[in-house]
User: Fold this.
Amino acid sequence: MDSTYKDFLNDIKFKSKAERPALLMNFCLQNMPSGQSAVVEAAAVPRFFDEDYLNYLLDRKLDEKEFQELTSLSYVESPPDEEYFNIHESSRNLILDNFLKTNESRFRDISSRAAQYCFKQNNEDKKWRIEYIYHQLVANPAKGAHELIETGWQWQKDPYFPYDKIELLLRAVREHFTHWQEDGEELFRELEDRYESEPLSIRLVLLLILSAVLFANSKKKPNSLSSFYENAILLLLGFWQMGLEEQESLDLRKDLEKLAFLIQKNQAKNLSNLEEIVKNLPEKVMEYSKCQIAPLVNLDEENIYFLHHSFQEYLAACYILNSNRDNQIDMARLIEENFIHWKDVFIFVLKKKSNEQAITALQSLIPEGLSNSPGDYRKAMAVGLGLLELKLASAPECKDLYRQCILHLTKIVSEGALPSKERAEAGDVLGQLGDSRYGVKLDKDRLPDVSWIEIEGKWDIETFEMAQYPVNVAQYQAFIDAGGYKNDDFWIGIARDWRNRMRRTVPVSWKRQILYRNRPVSGVTWFEAKAFCLWLSKIRSWKITLPTEGQWKRAIRGKHRGSYPWGYLKSLNSEHANLINSGVRHPTSVGMYPQEAKEKSIYDLIGNIREWCRCSDENSIQGESDDNFDEDTDNSNQRYARGGSYYSKGDEHEVMETKFDKTACDSDFGFRLVRLDSP
Assistant:
């Protein structure tokens, strides 16, 4: 064996698994003839290539042998039914990483050639358009950013919105972030998370704008959403302002800020008629709204709207900050009147202040003592959100502010102090700051601190204890952290087969759920609910199960004969439970509807999430024998899930009679615990 190979093999033995692929690829490139390694590097720059494309990139004609040697490499392939070749993605990334480190100027030169080649192809073909922008971003970032915005805007306005092509363009752009702009990844994730509920077309356009901003501003990249919006506005206005005088540009920016604030204020009062605002639009704004490349503001007959609501909120925040130099706008008053509508504007205002100024602003909002005023509650919610967004919750200088805020938020949630949609916001903020209510939090050992309520037996049902709240996300996280999904003791028979087949390690949508730790865990199957019970039984030495049919009905009826905790009711209002008429449209923090729990202090039996029951037989009182819950003796594939959920109407049949497959795991399936004995 050649000594070079021996040295390489000896060296690679002591490297980590992650390091070895790059070392192997570099070794292969170094040991190729110089002409062939140059061809391989050039072929790695485009995402696909043929002989003509490569000839253009290398500025010489490849002979047949060179091209055959390239295409016979193990990591080069020709996709089915395509005339082009490509280098496998993982190998291509390794080659590009090496190319960037060893010869960046040549890499840029080949990218420039690739952009020229693509531009000469059929520009109506979206594939070539994407490839052109991809290379232009490296060769000429400012021009590439312009092309990215223009193309994305044209496609977004297309009546046949090409989702797949815009997603492909985004994937192509983000490939460069891996090599050039890693600091943009966090902003990408934040934008994706923040606007997850927005239509795909909006999310894609926002991400395209972020991509353009990151490439166009190579010297000063945005490091927060606030700086992203500022950079984006400068970039988007810049496409139109080239012929304007400096003062004209400044005036346009001021007019847009004022317009954003006026529309925001109009919407806060639930006024949809913008006719008066449109009538008084400055001429320069009217002209700008006709801009062909992603105008910040669009005029549509008698209506006017911003590219995205978040741009409106950011510009409204700028207007408030500039106006507040003369004390013209009372932000506290706006929050008192409509917190939900102004909260994002408020956060933009805070983030444009220094930390010291922001803390002072938050301290001025927090009410003294526990208030009963809706306006004070809303200001406390704003303070909590501010502490979260500015990452000040654990700052020593905010200790008293944090404590007061927690007291107010807990009161809002526990006492039903605001309408349900606002209370849901308060619950989420409380969950992220740290919900310390008994029965919701974890104990000192980071285990579920369940609050048990005794339910008096009646008829053939013996007295039992039921958890005051459904199992929440923080409590389920303890199960995951303890290896609950890996321990076969908690997965028996078909449950284990299901877990292994599905490779389940967390509930569905878990990444989203863990942001809201005091919401009930959701997206869990009956198997997962049962595994949690078996785990908690073992660590507490208690007999913990899911409720039987009889137990669940006994808990909900109490002294009443009806199907609701409050008895018979012909109609449900938005304050009874988190059902579809509450308008919340997602699970809320547990224990948020005190009307529901007047008699027994058991919350969320109706709405929020469906609760898995132990039995498959609706006539069962105690269900199958109490001794066989930890066995796999029941062949029924279905179980009842009681109580309805956040998108249920709450009618009696849905609340009391709905049966589902054990593997059902929609976003509204959760569970509650029953304790049959304790030490």
